[in-house]
Design a protein that fits this description.
- The chain is of the alpha+beta class and 426 residues long.
- Helices cover 28% and strands 31% of the residues.
- It is globular, with a radius of gyration of 24 Å.
- GO terms for molecular function: endonuclease activity; hydrolase activity; metal ion binding; RNA binding; RNA nuclease activity.
- Keywords: Endonuclease, Hydrolase, Magnesium, Metal-binding, Nuclease, RNA-binding.
Length: 426
């Protein structure tokens, strides 16, 4: 299959998506000016403890350089000598006190009245490995099942292990040549040592590491065995991608990226490891080539039509996402109708799993399928829906069917849903 990651920018808003054979799988949208704090690492100053709610309030500086507060979740065993909290100031007995400086990473942005959330399990993430500063253990992703491959990756990571951090091999590392693995681990180790050198002399509230925008880092989250190419028509984003994925842009590449109308520079790119990064400079706009306007507009529509003539009605609410499966006009013959309803529900299950990922809908999801009388068909439908959800990068589970015939699902929360991203980008 031809899998591409497309990034384009217009009027200060970056639209980007993961496409499989020309069809969108995931779509995102965000302002080019980075406002999110997620992934940033700080030398945070403890403002005050809040033991009653198992946390503390910290002070950091946001993207504008202004002081702001965040909520810190106290980890288990935080009062013990081998606490996972990394202190950057001399301790004053057990636990934490106001004025202490600790190393934290932001895991959630502020939402309405809620403060940003920080955690002590600081990590540096690559495509194949994660360095975990709050957990010194070395491990391999549970999704890698082959014993030989697990042992290979574990032994490889052990060669780079140092005191102060752990190394976890990600699913994408499976089957990757040691030369590529070595290149990334060396880069992560350099990033780690630079971070710790800065942290040793940092004042409270200092930003030590800024996470690149998600439109840059998303390529490392996508399945390594599926993604063929990253394509952008923005010269600045192209250079940023090349730097992040391990290649400085040469002067000739920079000049070719600046020339949009030269037929000889229609496509220029850098091969970074197994990932092709391409600058698109054709006269025909990249956003029109991939019909981005159409796909973003469709992803905001309440109704999704199915090939059989049925439809889905998708309603995100404050508490949950509600999806109704409508049959449209089908045969009135009962024997025929039972099979038609079953097939339409299977068709709807495929589209539901796709739409949840495309729109980045999460939390509690309730689906009202077309009613089926046979228990066997209902059980088969649940199993089929669960199988479709396994294609999702985000944890998505089918829980059960209620007495009223409603299917309960959950999908882990990460970024905002697409309709909120688009609203924020305007």
């Amino acid at each position: 299959m031809n899998h591409k990651y497309i990034i384009t920018e217009r009027c200060g808003v970056v639209r980007y998506g993961y496409f499989a054979d020309g069809q969108p799988v995931e779509l995102y949208c965000e302002p080019k000016e980075q406002k999110s704090l997620v992934g940033n690492i700080y030398a945070a100053r403890v403002e005050r403890m809040a033991d009653g709610i198992g946390g503390a309030f910290l002070e950091i500086r946001d993207h504008r350089g202004q002081n702001c507060k965040c909520y810190f979740r106290l980890p288990k065993g935080w009062k013990e000598p081998d606490s996972p909290i990394i202190r950057l100031s001399p301790g004053r007995g057990d636990g934490l006190r106001g004025g202490d400086i600790i190393l934290v990473q932001i895991t959630k942005d502020a939402v309405k009245t809620k403060l940003p959330v920080a955690e002590s399990n600081v990590s540096l993430t690559g495509k194949y490995f994660v360095l975990t500063l709050g957990d010194p253990r070395t491990g391999v992703s549970k999704k890698i099942k082959k014993k030989e491959e697990r042992e290979r990756l574990s032994a490889f990571a052990a060669r780079y292990k140092e005191e102060g951090f752990g190394i976890v091999a990600r699913t994408n590392a499976e089957g990757i040549r040691e030369e590529e693995l070595e290149q990334e681990l060396s880069s992560l180790l350099e990033r780690y040592h630079t971070l710790m050198r800065r942290a040793a002399y940092a004042e409270g509230r200092t930003l030590l590491y800024r996470e690149p925008p998600q439109y840059v880092t998303l390529a490392q989250e996508l399945p390594g065995d599926e993604l063929n190419e990253v394509v952008t028509d923005n010269p600045e984003i192209y250079e940023e991608l090349c730097r992040y994925y391990g290649k400085e842009v040469s002067d000739s590449s920079r000049q070719s990226a600046a020339v949009h109308n030269n037929a000889d520079t229609r496509k220029r790119g850098q091969q970074t490891g197994g990932l092709q990064i391409t600058f698109y400079s054709d006269d025909y706009p990249l956003e029109k080539l991939y019909r981005l306007d159409h796909y973003y507009e469709s992803a905001l529509q309440k109704t999704v039509w199915l090939p059989s003539g049925g439809s889905l009605v998708i309603e995100p609410t404050e508490a949950m996402v509600v999806i109704d499966v409508n049959s449209g006009s089908v045969t009135k013959k009962k024997k025929q109708a039972e099979m038609v309803y079953y097939e339409m529900n299977r068709e709807a299950a495929v589209e539901i799993a796709r739409q949840l990922r495309l729109r980045n809908l999460s939390g509690i999801i309730v689906v009202d399928f077309i009613n089926m009388e046979k228990k066997e068909q209902r059980q088969e439908l649940l199993a089929f829906l669960a199988d479709q959800c396994k294609k999702d990068r985000i944890n998505c589970q089918v829980i059960d069917m209620t007495a009223l015939g409603l299917v309960e699902m959950i999908r882990s929360k990460g970024r905002k849903p697409l309709h909120e991203q688009i609203k924020d980008g305007k």
